[in-house]
Amino acid sequence: MTTPSSDVVDFRSANPHALETILAASETRTIIAARDIVDLKGVKLWARDQPVSRALQERLLDRGLKEPLETSLRAKDGLNHERLARELAARMNGPLAALLQPAAAALMAALPSVPLHPVAQLLLTAAQDARPVAFAHAVDAMAVAGAMALARRAPAVVVTGAMTAGLLHDIGEIYMSPDFGEADIGATLDADQYRQLVVHPHIGQLLLSQLTDTRPDVVRAVAEHHERLDGSGFPRCLQGTALSPLGCLVAAAEAALLALREPGASLQHASVALRVVPGEFDEHMVGPLVAAARRAAAGQPLPAPTRLRDDLTRLDLALQSALNHLDALAPDAEALGDGDTGQHAIVRATVLARHLLLRLRAGWNESGLWSPAALDGEAAAEAGAVQDALRWRLRAIERAARLAAGPVQGEAADTLDEVCAGLAGELG
Question: Which of 97, 88, 96 is nearest to 138 (CA)?
Fold first, then answer.
């Protein structure tokens, strides 16, 4: 995947999605102009200390601004540490309890050190009112990243960085249509929609580096929160030591929380999501969450052996079926001419999909669930979560394949659809 362009968002003009979020929040919060808002020609569009309203939207239409809108507005009654503390306290029960409760006192003690820069505070306040699911996810990530850092006995500066990066990691989503938010990352998206989704870490990086004084390591972690150690993440496909330790931590927290969004998911699902593909995450870094999931699952009844055996057999066949399907449809790259652009696109899609499927298959083999001996003990207890994780990953491979192919038409588009339809195997 190519590196996102630095002009993916221009802060000299008002982003329509961010503006809509701010204006929606202004209906219940007091958001004012901290200074005169002036266009590039020096025309005053909005006066200092004037509360914003829908009229601002019309005045900003197609106008370049002397100063970024985000630095020109303030949320007077916006998010503060007291409100964050109440949000954090509410997370101590529920699916994250086994991870967060042992760290509760330390998380609360560290919270006042999490900076709330006026720009970040404005956008988080707007999200709290206008995009409550996104805001709740940000607080969840702050709590999980902080708890994982604390469990590894990280110094205070690292804990604060982890909590800050968790809180801010998806701030770039405010610049996208809410139709393409993280809540939909597991859904079926076409290539154009997926391209819009995958650029949000870079938007967050630009926002924080250009408009705030956020710590450089936190800014980097925001940029890396969807990257993976094995290079299978986005937007830059970084791998290994190219990723920062804080980026790896926030990426693990993010992946765990995405797994918890699946209906009926438990902390066990989050644990499996971090281990289902070997090499994606640092096993030592994710250890605290894995241990918490085991504590939470202790004493729960195991699934019925007959049903479990049938489900696991079906899953094993589905993974192999998907690989066979790809091999049958993949064009011969060496036989293609330079003009076969559509077929070259299919080659890119099938090569990437096959690589990711093989990684998924390796995780399946390592789980041992293909063996009848796995019907007892911890592996059996996790079997349902493994099935859910693999099903989700097959959907993710479909999106990656479509992104790799790019825009295709005619016969190539039909072939790409056939490739993607086969990735679900018997699990569709």
Answer: 88
Tell me which H or E stretch contains 389. Answer: helix 377-405
Averaged confidence pLDDT in the chain: 86
Cβ–Cβ under 8 Å, residues 233 and 226:
yes
Structure tokens at 90: 């509410």
- The reported pTM is 0.87
Helices and strands of the chain, counted as H and E runs: 19, 4
Question: Is the Cβ–Cβ distance between 36 and 46 less than 8 Å?
Answer: yes
pLDDT band, residue 390 (cuts 50/70/90)? confident
134 in Cβ contact with 170 (< 8 Å): yes
Read off the pLDDT band of 221 (50, 70, 90).
Answer: very high
Are the C-beta atoms of 272 and 163 separated by less than 8 Å?
no
- CB within 8 A of 231, min separation 6: which ones? 237, 238, 239, 240
Residue in the block written with tokens 């057999």: 313
User: How many alpha carbons lie under 13 Å from residue 83 in its C-beta half-sphere?
Assistant: 11
Q: What is the dihedral of CA 43, 46, 48, 49, to 10 degrees?
A: 170
Q: What is the pLDDT of residue 2?
A: 46
CA gap 416, 421 in Å, rounded: 8
d(CA 355, CA 370) in angstroms, rounded, equals 21
Hey, what's the torsion of the CAs at 306, 272, 236, 164, to 10 degrees? 150
Residue 325 — pLDDT band, cuts 50, 70, 90? confident
345 burial via Cβ count (<10 Å: 0-12, 13-18, 19+): buried
360 vs 366: CA distance, rounded Å: 10
Burial of 281 (0-12, 13-18, 19+ CB in 10 A): buried
**Is 169:222 a contact under the CB 8 Å cutoff?**
yes
Amino acid making up residue 134? A
Q: What is the mean pLDDT of residues 28-55?
A: 95
pLDDT mean over 313-336: 81
Mean pLDDT score, 366-370: 66
Helix 132-151 crosses helix 156-168 at what angle (to 10 degrees)? 160
